[in-house]
Design a protein that fits this description.
This protein is an alpha+beta fold. The chain is built from 17 helices and 39 strands. 27% of the residues lie in helices and 32% in strands. It is globular and about 80 Å long. Strand 30 and strand 31 form a beta hairpin.
Length: 681
């Protein structure tokens, strides 16, 4: 077995590989750019080698620099993770020339299947059903428009060497095809060093289901079930689960056998993924093969018990698979939510900055989901597992140079419903401050009836959130439970306050029992009766809820039992109450005396400033291009400028007709959030 492995990657996947290598007794070498000097993967590895400036095209994807790190460290093998050089045949060849093992498939398999154009041709020759499209290279935007019309809109423009949603655009007309072609080429060049683009028909209402394959160099190959990856935003996966709630055993077997046959046709040896588009009648079409470890591999590991990274290392060491197809059993259900550094309230635009607070839920293999010592009454006990693959830590920086994903939160349970409920509690327990993040959106998805029913397609986010994510409006029953909890919490705060101010003696607690709680437009009058173990909250209609928990003022997480069920709240203090975040909702909760509630109704609401005549920068980023000039009349939907952040180009468009009065930024300028780019008359 290898004694030392270099991980040619960064972030959570580098940390993930290090954990398995450590378990196997293998030393690890990390590589890092200037931006990653203090990164978690650098701290976890046994050694670390600096490879250059922050941009990936000057560090992580420069083959010569990575090879220098391999040579200087004496590493015997390299695990590429995903992205960067993971599907680069030139990198694998360079390693082979130096006698260093590549923890991935042979060069020939990468060349045939890692390139999306070539892989589709091979699939077609093998009789595999593929999505209609143009597999040849496209020279310019005019040719892209011509081909798009021949294929028929809508079309997908994709980077041949792409992955992770980079270099991908959907076009519904000629203008979008022209713009999308150039943006896809730019993103592909910056992310992969390869700007080749191809076009295929975009199938509406599809499901994205992929098969995990595992092959060795001795001719053995197996599949480890499927992963449902249909919930995507901008072709980037957000929520994955295994198995799929849509497939039956016959379809699973057919897809799995076809995936293995395709892999063996190119002498594949390692872990790999064959992706399919599946329609409502369970017809499946080959989409592409990823010749690497997938981001969402943890859900497969959770339902099969197979450590895919370990298997990749053993295959690279020349060992035959110790697992046969008959050994593969799918056990229970696993769900993965990707935590991104992006603001869902700003159209999911990237967010950068320092993680002032980063407290994931406690990881565990099985047992109670949360620490029992913090719960009162009947603790939530279930046969569940919680896993969080991450590459960051509290106090660390989220850089603008790399992918915005900072963690993958996974839960496992015997059934899908139980796995979803475990995920809900885990998301509510995940504390992240200092940056914009998508935790509220993930919570909303876990409660969405379409997801709960397992009836989602790749159009889920576009169809269910056509105006973007605006937060969650909770049902009245949920609001009542939160109102009861916050009223009990407010009572504890009031007792603490009276002690601090000296307005309390040993004979009388000067804290009232009548309170009014307002939240999300609802108002609840209630009376609190407390004892040593908790509080009984009685509403005006006579409903009574028992509230228990060990929350104390200053705690930013409240783990409560309300009306016999767990309730997890993220808590912030505001004047006259709390800022509460739970189940995707972010709300101000005011707890007042009856008289204070009467007076509050007379208070005027604060009016937000008018920014309708300003184009504000929605994210920290670089101005790539300005499309208009001062004095120019623009129409609704017209492109105004392009902002690049985290390797993605974002075209900002006019929301209405107007005349450009001033332009306050120039191409190449770095802008902060809400900085004024241009003004309109």
């Amino acid at each position: 077995m290898f004694k030392k492995i270099l991980i040619a990657n960064r972030g959570e996947i580098a940390c993930r590989v290090i954990k398995t290598a450590r378990k196997m007794g293998i030393g690890t070498v990390a590589i890092y750019s200037d931006a990653d000097k203090q990164a978690l993967h650098v701290q976890m590895a046994d050694e670390a080698v600096h490879i250059g400036p922050p941009p990936a095209n000057q560090s992580y994807i420069v083959i010569d620099k990575v090879m220098e790190a391999v040579k200087s460290s004496g590493a015997e093998a390299v695990h590429p993770g995903y992205g960067f050089l993971s599907e680069n045949s030139k990198f694998a060849s360079a390693l082979s020339a130096e006698g260093v093992a590549f923890v991935g498939p042979p060069v020939g398999a990468i060349e045939k299947m890692g390139d999306k154009i070539t892989s589709k041709k091979i699939a077609q020759e093998a009789g595999v059903s593929t999505v209609p499209g143009y597999m040849g290279l496209i020279e310019d935007a005019d040719e892209a428009v011509k081909i798009s019309n021949e294929v028929g809109y809508p079309v997908m423009l994709k980077a041949s060497a792409g992955g992770g949603g980079k270099g991908m655009r959907i076009a519904w007309n000629d203008e979008e095809a022209r713009e999308g072609f150039q943006s896809s080429k730019n993103e592909a060049a910056n992310s992969f060093g390869d700007d080749r683009i191809f076009i295929e028909k975009f199938i509406t209402q599809p499901r994205h289901i992929e098969i995990q394959v595992l092959c060795d160099s001795h001719g053995n190959g197996i599949y480890l079930g499927e992963r449902e990856c249909s919930i995507q935003r901008r072709q980037q996966k957000v929520v994955e689960e295994a198995p799929s709630p849509f497939l039956d055993e016959a379809t699973r077997k057919a897809m799995g056998e076809q995936a293995v046959a395709l892999a063996q046709a190119v002498d594949y040896a390692s872990a790999g993924t064959v992706e399919f588009i599946v329609d409502g009648a369970k017809n499946f079409y080959f989409l592409e093969m990823n010749t690497r470890l997938q981001v969402e591999h943890p859900v497969t590991e959770l339902i099969t018990g197979v450590d895919l990274v370990e298997q990749m290392i053993r295959v690279a060491n020349g060992e035959p698979l110790s697992i046969k197809q008959s050994d593969v059993k799918l056990n229970g259900w696993a769900i993965e939510n990707r935590l991104y550094a992006e603001d869902p309230y700003r159209g999911f635009l990237p967010s950068i900055g320092r993680l002032t607070r980063y407290r994931p839920p406690m990881e565990q293999a099985a047992g109670p989901l949360l620490d029992n010592d913090k719960w009162q009454g009947d603790a939530p006990s279930a046969d569940v597992a919680v896993r969080n693959d991450t590459g960051v830590y509290e106090g660390g920086e989220i850089s603008m140079y790399y992918d915005p994903m900072i963690a993958k939160l996974c839960t496992w349970a015997p059934t899908r419903d139980a796995a979803i409920e475990a995920m809900r509690v885990a998301l509510d327990s995940f504390e992240v401050e200092g940056i914009g993040h998508n935790l509220p959106f993930l919570s909303a998805v876990m409660d969405h009836p379409i997801f709960i029913a397992g009836e989602m397609t790749t159009a889920f986010i576009e169809e269910q959130y056509p105006e973007g994510f605006q937060g969650v409006e909770l049902a009245e029953d949920d609001l009542r439970r939160i109102a009861a909890a916050t009223a009990a919490m407010n009572r504890v705060s009031e007792i603490r306050r009276t002690r601090v101010t000296g307005r309390m003696d040993n004979h009388e607690r000067k804290v009232g029992t009548d309170w009014n709680v307002t939240l999300q437009g609802a108002s609840f009058g209630m009376v609190i009766s407390a004892d040593r173990d908790g509080s009984n909250v009685t509403f005006e209609d006579g409903t009574c809820m028992r509230v228990t928990g060990l929350w104390t003022p200053g705690d930013q997480l409240a783990q409560m039992i309300v009306d016999g069920a767990p309730l997890v709240l993220k808590v912030g203090k505001i004047s006259g109450g709390f800022r509460i975040r739970t189940r995707g909702a972010d709300m101000k909760v005011h707890v007042r005396t009856p008289r204070q509630a009467e007076l509050a109704l007379l208070m005027p609401e604060k009016v937000a400033p008018d920014t309708s005549k300003l184009l504000l920068c929605p994210m920290p980023g670089l101005v790539v291009k300005l499309n208009v000039e001062i004095g120019e009349e623009v129409q609704e939907g017209q492109a105004l400028c392009t902002i690049e952040a985290m390797k993605m180009e974002n075209i900002l468009r006019a929301e209405k007709k107007g005349i450009v009065a001033a332009i306050n930024a120039s191409a190449g300028a770095s802008l902060a959030v809400d900085e004024v780019i241009m003004e309109f008359e």
